[in-house]
Design a protein that fits this description.
- The protein has 7 helices and 2 strands.
- With about 160 residues, the chain is mainly alpha-helical.
- The protein has one domain.
- Helix 1 runs antiparallel to helix 4.
- The relative contact order is 0.14.
């Protein structure tokens, strides 16, 4: 039986979908293979499963969270591609989807502030290499031969 109302479940799913959407928007904006809708759905699903599992028992929540992590890992594997040149694309997007699942689990568990903080941290991590000072450092590394010639390859997708 649910220990909270169905409206609370709907609210959790909506919040997780919104937070996932924000991260997905960044990926879509950068032209990556998974975007807003995919990430919103991952967050929504993780929150829904976690909420139902947590309402059952702590053991139920643990099993559900394990399933969410494994399922999203499977989805993430589908986002990773090996290029003919030997490079790998999609790692950052796959890791972002995994992080969105964690945000959804946090929301589903009722840890709203932690979910919002995790969302901000993910967005910060995805955007930090675009700061002008870090771009100068990266250009210097490439000139010295320590970085790849393609900045997108250094990012991992």
């Amino acid at each position: 039986m649910l220990h909270f109302s169905e409206w609370a479940l709907v609210g959790r799913m909506a919040l997780a979908a919104l937070l996932g959407y924000l991260i997905g928007f960044e990926r879509e904006w950068r032209g990556k293979p998974a975007g807003e809708r995919t990430f919103a759905l991952i967050g929504l699903g993780a929150a829904a499963f976690t909420s139902i599992g947590a309402a059952e028992s702590i053991a139920g929540a643990t099993r559900v969270i394990q399933g969410v992590v494994a399922g999203v890992g499977f989805l993430g594997a589908g986002l990773i591609f090996r290029e003919a040149s030997g490079g790998v694309m999609g790692l950052t997007t796959a890791a972002s989807s995994w992080a969105v699942a964690a945000v959804g689990v946090l929301v589903g568990a009722g840890a709203y502030a932690a979910a919002a903080a995790a969302t901000l941290l993910v967005l910060l991590i995805l955007e930090i290499n675009r700061l002008p000072i870090l771009r100068r450092i990266e250009r210097g590394r490439r000139r010295e031969g320590r970085g790849s010639e393609d900045p997108a390859a250094d990012e991992g997708a």
